[in-house]
Amino acid sequence: MLYIKDIVKTYKRGVRANDGVTIQVGAGEVVGLLGHNGAGKTTLINQVAGLTVPTSGTIRVDGCDPVAEPSKVRRMIAVMPQSHAPLTGVTPRQVIKSMARIRGMSKSAANTRTEELIEALDLGEWADTTGERLSGGVRRLTAFGMAAASPGQVVMLDEPTNDVDPARRRLLWEQIRGLANRGCAVLLVTHNVVEAERSVDRIVVLDSGKVMAEGTAAQLRSRAAGDLRLELTAADIDGLPSLPEHIATAGPPLRASRRLTIALESSAAADALTWAQRLRASQDIDEFSLVPVGLEDVYLDLVGGESTSNGEEEG
């Protein structure tokens, strides 16, 4: 459905926002594009939407080229941008219904779809409130409703859960999955590792414009050193203990301020847990946790902890 092959986008001064990006999203699939701010995610979406022309490479939306057939492709896609939708003077009900009509739905179908989305996203309380009086979270939900009103074949969502409260965030994820269940190919931009791990079918990690890794959450977690992470937190920066020699690690311990993180194989869990409990009982540390390796561990291994911005985009 969505085919992106070897996309390069070079801006002035030779800065590459995208550097050989290849991604495919099939019908009924939700693919998460994960990366720091400035990793090249929003630039990529803009090229699929025909708002920016690639320097080189190929993009196809159900076989159509956004550069050669921009009008046709725009009828086939729906985009929820990273920025807030312009809602001054209009209500969520009005803009969702208007978008459905613009996308070709009959008046009756547009009314029905609008009410479905208002109910599904729990927007009823604000459905007839003008945009300047809405919170950021309600504006984000409204923007999603505009994209989902009549979504076409490909849906691209840029940080859809930003500012949304936890309860309605769950409702939003249900609707995102609902779009895929209707046969849409969904490309979702996020920097929220936890949400990506729980909610998408595949994950593409993007950093400095390049694809660093791709796969399911389980496939990406398998890249990590060890099966477990032991994390110790000391009362002060000088209070972190030295690791006993009898505890076999799966990689070098990482020290950050008052925190010590140790990669472990499952076979070392019992010894590590005994040691951590002893430290806690003697008050040598404030707290500890022993948890399975997560996608965040893999993500930080791939891209590091600092954002690398190309200066051309926020996302």
Describe this entry's structure for a reader:
It is a single chain. This protein has 315 residues and is of the alpha/beta class. It folds into two domains: 220 residues, Rossmann fold, CATH 3.40.50; 66 residues. It is 33% helix and 25% strand. It is built from ten helices and 13 strands. The strands form three sheets. The chain has a six-stranded mixed beta sheet with strand order 5-6-7-3-8-9, sandwiched between helices. The longest helix is centred in the middle third of the chain and has 16 residues. The chain is globular.
**What is the residue-mean pLDDT, rounded to a whole number?**
91
As laid out across the biggest beta sheet, the strand order is 5-6-7-3-8-9
Please tell me the CATH architecture of the largest domain by its name: 3-Layer(aba) Sandwich
Report the structural category.
alpha/beta
Membrane topology: Peripheral membrane protein
Subcellular location: Cell membrane
Organism: Nocardiopsis sinuspersici
GO molecular function, one term: ATP binding
Provide a short characterization of the protein structure:
With 315 residues, this protein is α/β, with parallel strands linked by helices. It has helices spanning 41-48, 70-76, 92-102, 107-120, 136-148, 166-181, 193-199, 217-221, 269-281, 295-303, and strands spanning 2-10, 16-25, 30-34, 56-61, 77-80, 154-158, 185-190, 202-207, 210-215, 228-233, 254-256, 259-264, 287-292.
